[in-house]
Amino acid sequence: MNKSVWSIVLLLMIGATACKSKKAAQKPGDERALEASALEMYQSMRQNDVSFAELSAQGNLTADLNGQSLGAAFNLKIEKDKQIWLSVKPMLGIEAVRVLIRQDSVFVLDRLNKEYLAQPFSWLVNLSQAPLTFEVLQDVLLNNVGFLAGNKPQSESSGGLLFQQQGQQVRLIRAEARPKAASLRVQQNQQELQVEYLQWLEVEKKWLPAQLKMIIKGKQSSSIELNFAKFAIENEQTYPFSIPGNYSKMD
After folding, report:
1. DSSP H helical segments within 81-176, as ranges?
2. Whole-structure pTM over 0.90, yes or no?
3. Which residues, 6 or more positions from 224, have their beta carbon under 8 angstroms from its beta carbon?
4. Per residue in 52-103, pLDDT tens?
5. Which of 91, 93, 109 is nearest to 101 (CA)?
6. 195-208: b (≥16 Cβ within 10 Å) or e
7. If we measure between CA atoms, which residue out of 89, 62, 87 comes closest to residue 76?
8. Is the dihedral of CA 5, 119, 102, 216 positive or negative?
9. Which of the following CATH numbers is that of domain 3-228: 2.50.20.10, 2.40.30.110, 3.40.190.10, 3.90.226.10?
10. Less CB within 10 Å around the terminal CB: N or C of the chain?
């Protein structure tokens, strides 16, 4: 297996999108009215964040990574604020990669090459080149916007919301027919991440993404599309992960 390809897949799947915004820039006109309007829009989206203790999802992904194409089925499980478990099966239902992400660590099993990776969570921060947090991973995959809570949004002429911090800008555009974000854009230095939420599934009277597309723009562009077949809110899931004794550690 091409390790660099799966590193990019992991990066895209977990979304290099964390940010904590500071005070919004000065706005023309009636600043209080603009701030109230922006805050109301953000709160309406946040109220529709799905809440859960444990959640599972299934679907398919297609990716174009540095000129290499990839298609695979995946299973995803999340124990809120504790762990994210991912299994990727690119052919004939045979698992190729299993990933376990926790608050402080990341583990990857490459079953095809009998190799494993064990890294602190800071490895993801370095890989994504963004101030990534575990909580943000949950939100980006589920189209939740709670990771921006406590930050002051700024209205833009396009109708979207802008959150700013040093060296980074995050833009949210609300969907026309849903109280959810239709798109998310993060710009930092010479890199840009775009996330487009294209279709929806209703779960527990809240809307989750049925289809989303991520694009990373830098020196080379990569993209991945996730199509979720279903979500389920369920408790007492298992998150099996063990490293076989005959596996070699990745460099």
Report:
1. 122-128, 134-142
2. no
3. 9, 12, 13, 61, 62, 63, 64, 65, 213, 214
4. 999 999 999 988 866 778 889 999 999 999 999 999 998 777 899 999 999 9
5. 109
6. bbbeebeebeebbb
7. 87
8. negative
9. 2.50.20.10
10. C
